[in-house]
Every structure is written in C-alpha cells, then in structure tokens.
Predict the structure.
Amino acid sequence: MPTELKRRLRLFMQVSKAIHSGTGTREILDIIVAQVAALLDAMGAIFWIVDTAAGVIRSKVAWGFTYRSLMAVDYALLADIFALPRCGPIHIDDARSDPRLPNLERLGKKRVATIHAQPVPIVDEVMGVLALYFNRHRRLSTDDCDLVAGLADQGAIALQKALRFDDAQLEIFRQTVAGLVLALEAKDPVTHGHSRRVARFARETARALALEETECDSIFQAALLHDIGKIGLTDHILGRQGKLTAGEMHRLRQHPAVGVRILQPLRMFNDLLPLVRHHHERFDGTGYPDGLRGGEIPLGARVLAVCDVFETMLSGRAHIEARSLAQALAQLGQGSGSQFDPAVVCALRATIERHPEILSDWEIDDDFIVALLTEGPPSSAPRASEAVLAHRFPTAF
C-alpha cells in the first residue's frame, strides 16, 4: 500500500477512534484541521461552525494561521464564498482575482492563491465548513476532494453526537427544573407564580448588567429554584410567615441551605448552588446563611436578592401589603448599598424603564413552566444547539 494512502487511512482511523472513545469535540476538530492541512500541504485549514438560520458564525477551529484576517470574516461573506447553506464542494482556483473576496488586505488574498471547502450539515440549521487555504495554485485530485469531504463528515459526526447528547441532557435538566418548581408551588400556593416572576425579572436584570447569555440563563434557572428549600418547611410555617416564633424563623432561614441539599445530588445543578444558597445574603453582610458581604456574594445571588424582594413587594403577602411600582422601586432605592447591590438595583430600574412589559402577569396553568423552559420567554432565547455550542466553544464569534 502506498505511503500516502496509509497516512490517509491512519488519519481516518485516528479521528474515528477519537469520536467513539468520547474525546472532546474541539480536540477532534484540532486533529482534523492539522492533519488534513499537512496531508495536502496547505498553508492552513479552518473548520467553521455556522448557524444558517441566525446568520452567524458560532465558532471555528483553525490550524496554520499566524494572522487573523481570514478568520475574522463575517457570516454574510462566508456564506457568499461557500454558497451556504448548500452542501456541495467549493473550489476557488484563483482567490486573488475572485470577486467574492473583495479586500486583498483584510482577507489575506495576497497570501492565498487557492481555497477548497466542503460544507456539511450538522444538526438543525447548524452547518460545518472544512476549508483549506493554499499559498500557491493547487488543483485537487478526486482522491484529495474525497479526503476533505470525508474529514468534514467526520467533524460533523463528532459535533452531531455531542449536540444530540447534550440536547438530551438539556431536556432532562429542563424537565427536572419544571418538576421541582411545580412541586414547590403545589407546596406553597400562597406564593404561586412567585419563582416564575422572579426568574423573569432576574434574567432581564442580568442582561442589563451586560452578562453573557449563558450566565443570564443560569441566573434565570437559579431564580426558578431559589425557594426550593421551602419544600422542607411545614405548612404551618409557610402559612404564618410574618408571625413566626424565633424557632420557626430559624427554620425558615434554613431554606437556602436546604435547597442546596435538595439540588446537590443532581450534578446538573452544580453551577446554580451558590446562587440558591446566597440569595438572602445582604450587601452589608447582615444576611443569611453565611453573612457574606459585597463582592463575596455571587453576582447572580445579588440579582436574585433584589428581584425576590421586588416581586414580593409588588405581589404582597398575607402579612405584607402589596406596593405600587413606584413604592417598590423607592424601597429598593432605600436598601441600595445596605441590603442590595446598588448596581443591581440600577439595572432592575433600567430594565423596568426599557421593558415595562415584564411587569405584566403571566398565565400560570400547569403547562406554563414546561413551555417556559423549553421555549423560553418572549425575548429571544437560544436553541439547545446554540447553548451547547456556547458551552463547548466559549471563544465563539
């Protein structure tokens, strides 16, 4: 068997073994771009991951480039060059004179002579594009094109396997959250809908703080579960909040720690535990359960603290008269710097001013929470594939 053929078979075997052994997706794509560029003597290779529905580049894995010009193209240009969303091979023999690459300096055309690419479908509207860049004119043989197509397919299989697995895990996560929230609200009908409204306020407040969308989602999920520890309280205590003995108040104040103990066995909730535990800490250090202060309190927990009190003031309780919006905001202002993080209070106020629709009540039938978690709130929520790609490729565009 010729040496070149052996090298190609060895590469396919290496990639296939990595896919089936559970090697990380990025590592598999690193192998593909490095080895295919070496086998075909290319100056570099990039595996692009694009979302044709959203019209964005989700991420890329590259090898061989010491400059960013080729890697910093936007989706519109990439789609034009590689005729996305079609999946046929694209060969540009003379990149320097091709009208689809208009800017010599910005796109590195002075250094690139030939481009060969193979777009492949992955999942939903997410596609992969394995592209090779040559610094001399290069006409690929049929075997060369088959090699690129085969490796592009292997990369797509690796990504599809990862996304489908994580998609299933994400669905389990959502359904578990839904079940826990419904159980809490069945336990405490007085606060029916409280966690849902707090979650809505918290996500938009986190966005106003310019947090990454994945962190906003974590805060939203933690808000849905922040009172889960109240499942362990008796109906007597839940029904008499505001008129509790010292012992009953002590047990009530244990609910953040109890919530952590409930969620801790489920590793999918690990990132949410600090937010659930510390949502009753005060900015001045006089809160509970640990007396944290200022920046010691996780930012997500500081967001929950503000939104939790804000929702309670608007809705009222048996022992708390409902406040108007102006009264609730004024009371938050009074607590800014002592009970609450001033930056979070300002962010919530800005959110109310920009998005007053979040104050409108929601339907709270039994199917509501499941729909909320699977479809997201009215503001745009990422598809499962987007969330997974953001987690697996944090340097995405």
Q: What stands out?
A: The first strand starts at residue 44 and ends at 51.
